[in-house]
From TrEMBL:
Alphabetical keyword list: FAD, Flavoprotein, NAD, Nucleotide-binding
Name listed for the protein in its UniProt record: Glutathione reductase
Cofactor binding notes: Binds 1 FAD per subunit.
List of residues binding NAD(+): G172, A173, G174, Y175, I176, A177, F178, E179, G259
Cofactor entry: FAD
Pfam hit, one: Pyr_redox_dim
Lineage: Bacteria, Bacillati, Bacillota, Bacilli, Lactobacillales
Source domain of life: Bacteria
Domain FAD/NAD(P)-binding: 4-312
Gene3D superfamilies cross-referenced by the UniProt entry: 3.30.390.30, FAD/NAD(P)-binding domain
Family annotation (InterPro entries): FAD/NAD-bd_sf, FAD/NAD-binding_dom, FAD/NAD-linked_Rdtase_dimer_sf, Pyr_nuc-diS_OxRdtase, Pyr_nucl-diS_OxRdtase_dimer
Species: Companilactobacillus heilongjiangensis
Amino acid sequence: MEKFDTIVIGAGPAGLAAAHNLKSNGQNVAIVENNLWGGTCPNRGCDPKKVLLSGVEARDRIAQLQGKGFDELPNVNWKELEAFKETFTDPVSKGSRDGIVNAGITAIDGQPKFISENEIVVNGQDHYQAGKFIIATGQRPSYLNIKGKEHLLSSTDFLSLKKMPEDITIIGAGYIAFEMATIANATGAKVHVIHHNDHPLKGFNEGYALELVKQLEAKGVDFNFNVDTQAIEQQADGRYSITADGFELTTDLVIGATGRIANTDFLDFEKAGVEYTRHGVVVNAKLQSTNKNIYAIGDVVDTKQPKLTPVGGFEANYVSDILTGKTDKDLELPLIPTVVYGSPKLAKVGVQEGAEVVDQDVTGWFTYSHTNDPKAKIRIVLNDKSEIIGATLLSNNADSLINLLTMAIKDHMTHEDVIKQIMAYPTAASDLEYLF
Ligand SMILES: Cc1cc2nc3c(=O)[nH]c(=O)nc-3n(C[C@H](O)[C@H](O)[C@H](O)COP(=O)(O)OP(=O)(O)OC[C@H]3O[C@@H](n4cnc5c(N)ncnc54)[C@H](O)[C@@H]3O)c2cc1C
Ligand SMILES: NC(=O)c1ccc[n+]([C@@H]2O[C@H](COP(=O)([O-])OP(=O)(O)OC[C@H]3O[C@@H](n4cnc5c(N)ncnc54)[C@H](O)[C@@H]3O)[C@@H](O)[C@H]2O)c1
């Protein structure tokens, strides 16, 4: 039986970062993966989505400038765009595994199960012991429990569609639903979004979320709110009929985007004394599970933190520091900016209410008018010392501006601090001094 200082279970962004960190700090480390090395983000999440969105952005920009230098609106060639995406995704698994092996970390392929508090067996035959374990098994799509649920496809399927159907329906109105709807719409598909209540993108400012709905509606996306899907049936012609109380829709393909569920099953946690809920592994403020030698990081953790790649990476660094004696403090996450990659993009950071809120429609400002953007809005929240403490942005460059505002909040910047800076002009950043 092989013994290690630490065994990491799950080779996504969080698990890989922890394994590399621990190894470079002199530990004897193994990492177990039961599927694609690299995990969700580079194989079936953030990165492939961003490649597909680059096509959307290029087309949107030209659409906005039609009659202002551009005549024809080009079509997105899905087959070519998908092939381009695969040039990024195809090398990920081998590259991630090779990186592990080259770093001198033991790479184990297969399905691990705990058989005691400090031992796992992989594929029912190979036994490994460790002083510490890190669970980094992430999440997978959760499907609605309705009649015909077997017809639901996931975001993973969407990102690898060989052909974009003429008509596609997405159930749910969270991050994934908006991003898939944006991509499918730009390829020319008729897109329907069905949502069980009238709160899309819960957690974002309601007015801004509804403005994004309006912008997508203007591009032809059909939103159906307060529709609680009851059944999906395949018709003789291969299409699908979606039904709810007083509602019926026929479509070519149905994507379920109603959240994700933690990968806590199949690991026999009971044998290791690790408690978990349907939201993930239960941890304390040091990301330690109910077994003090087993930690959890990334999407699989049952905390309220947004489940995002940089959060998993931060937690990996933190647990590595704990396990190498560099810290014994509780985890303190910094501000977490988050972006819905729609068209336009919706971003937020920090708190959303304060002593003063400056909410502006900036569509007419040069930054947005020279590209003829249909809508840009910026909401800045200040505290009683006039420091920026939060922001929500809706614009095509919200993704980069939100990072700048995150730094400004961290540095407790006021308007006076902002005007002391020189920002490259003309950019969204050089507008900052006029925003509040
Ligand atoms: C469509 C989509 C788009 C996204 N876009 C963004 C974005 O733009 N920005 C952003 O920050 N985040 C985004 N996310 C979220 C991001 O992908 C996750 O937060 C991130 O991948 C979490 O990393 P992780 O290492 O915790 O888990 P994962 O990346 O899920 O990795 C977990 C790994 O564990 C493996 N595993 C699972 N069970 C077992 C087991 N029993 N034994 C061994 N191995 C196991 C899995 O196969 C996987 O490789 C997106 C997610 C999706 C689905
Ligand atoms: N840009 C990004 O950073 C990004 C992109 C995609 C995914 N992600 C991560 O992945 C996670 C999962 O994304 P998601 O869009 O699946 O989740 P989500 O939590 O953002 O949205 C889920 C949606 O499904 C709805 N829903 C839940 N239960 C339902 C039910 N029974 N019937 C009908 N609708 C129901 C919710 O109201 C919500 O609108 C996100 O929370 C985020 O952490 C991030």
